[in-house]
Structure formats: C-alpha cells, structure tokens
Amino acid sequence: MTTDAAIFEAERPGLTALCYRMLGERASAEDAVQDTWLRWARADHTAIENPGAWLRRTATRIAIDALRSARARRETYPGPWLPEPLVESDSLSVEDSFALAQECELALLWAMERLTPTERAAFILREAFDAGYDEIAASTGKSEAACRQLVSRAHRRLQESGPRFDAPPEEVAGLLQRFMAAAGAQDHEAALSLFTPGAVAYSDGGKKARAALRPLKGPAEIVQVVMAIIAKSLKDGAHWSMEPGLANGAPALVRRMGGKVDLVLTLAPGTDGRIAWLYAMRNPDKLPA
C-alpha cells in the first residue's frame, strides 16, 4: 500500500462516521467516502499540510451536496423517513468500517433532520470531531463567526426536538422491557403510563413492509396501534422471535419473522424519564440481511 493510500485508510473510519452522521444511510455514507478517495487520489499531496483536515473538509462538502439531493427525495418518501440503524446482537455484527458511526444515536440522527445541511455539518464537526472553527469555516464556506452561530443554533433546535440523546443504556433497556411486557399483556393502562404526553412514534416501511404512513402522536394513538398489531400477530399465529440487541449503541429489540430480521425497535426517553420517541424500522433495505 502506498503512503497516500495508507493515509486515507487510516482516516477512513472517521470519514465513514462523519458521512453516516451527515446522511443517516450506510450506502450513502460509503458512496461519499469513495468520492472522497477519488478526490484524494487526484490531489497534489505536496500542497496538503494536514491530510486529516483536508479529507474531513472534502468529505463534508461531498456529504452536504449529497444531503441536499437526499432531502428532495425524502420529501416524496412513502411515509416517515428514518435513519438506517447500525444493528448489533448475538447473531448480528456491525462492519468494522462503521464501528465509530455507532456512537451516533438514532434519536440524534433523526433530530438532525430538522437542521439545514450546513448547520448539520457544523454541529457534527464541532461536537463529534472537536474541529476548530477555522476547519468548520473551511468545510462549509462560512466565516468563523457564522459557524459559531450555526453550532449554537443547531444546539437550540436539537434541544427542542423532545427526546434526550444522553439517556443511560439501562434506562432505555428498562423502558423497552416494560413497554413490551405491557403490550404483550394487552395492559393499556400500564402502557399508557410509560409515555410522555407529547410522545411520537415513527415507523419506516419504505413501501416494502407494513408501517404507519404518518407519525403516531400521543400515548393513546401509539398504544392503540401497537396493541392492535401485536394482537393481530398473535391471532394470525405468525412465527416470530425477538432478541435483545443494540441499534447505534443503544438497547433495541430485533424481531425475526421466518428467520429474517423484519423489525428493529428502540426508543428515547424524555426529560421526565418516560418514552418520548419510539422508532420502528421495517424497511428491508435498511435492515440487516
């Protein structure tokens, strides 16, 4: 391996984590990293003083352009668009190239959808990669003062999103277990008590699996729909199994139907310790094979 290729490979995990945080999809992140490699291969390396910063800057610009294109497609997506989970369990493993990307929780990825591409890039570079404002300015084409405002504005908008992004794993796991126990027992009152008044549930089927075509809002609607789905599954006698796992490092439940993963379920608590955000991925294109 040449020195230039070795430099890029050393930076690849960080670039993959950066692009995944920007785009929320595994394949899109890999495409952005590949485009970064192509530009690196053509670059005059003698003029590059800091290869790591150059590669992050290039990857960020590519990801910003890709996100702008993706936003247009997501506006016509069938139902809610949810970020693709990085799933790990006893029977599933995450590729080494995405190991660093697992540190970004799904609730945060979802909340970052409300940021502009430039706000998102500035926030990620600052908070996930501890980049200086000079590097952020070079990556976004904004002044350092403007980048400080971008990061500050991103923080405010994310804090207004509802779910917490720093919940301990044991808190998430406990809520998941209590919710599934109540749902399995068809105990409506117990299930309702687990949600914040403004809770929202999202399911992504991508028009390839059954899922709600709009967000479910409020405990009553969420519990009613979930209970109906579970009751129907039991009535139909469908053969399925559930195993604990991790989705982007947070506790999750992974359901298999006929041996294939058909659901990843996780959540994020609100400030009162109850469920504020429920995530259900059913789109087979975003699930482990």
Short description:
With about 290 residues, this protein is of the alpha+beta class.
**What would you call the shape?**
globular
The helicity comes to: 40-55%
How many helices in DSSP terms? 10
Distance between the termini: 32 Å
Classify the secondary structure makeup into a structural class: alpha+beta
Order of helices and strands: HHHEHHHHHHEEHEEEE
Strand content: 15-25%
Number of domains: 2
**Mean pLDDT value:** 94
**Biggest sheet, spatial arrangement of strands:** 1-4-5-6-7-2-3
Q: Can you name the CATH architecture of the largest domain? A: Up-down Bundle
Q: Find the CATH topology of the largest domain.
A: Butyryl-CoA Dehydrogenase, subunit A, domain 3
Instruction: Round the Cα radius of gyration to an integer and report it.
Output: 20 Å
Count the strands? Answer: 7
Low-confidence stretches: none
- Biggest pleated sheet: 7 strands, mixed
CATH C-level class of the largest domain is Mainly Alpha
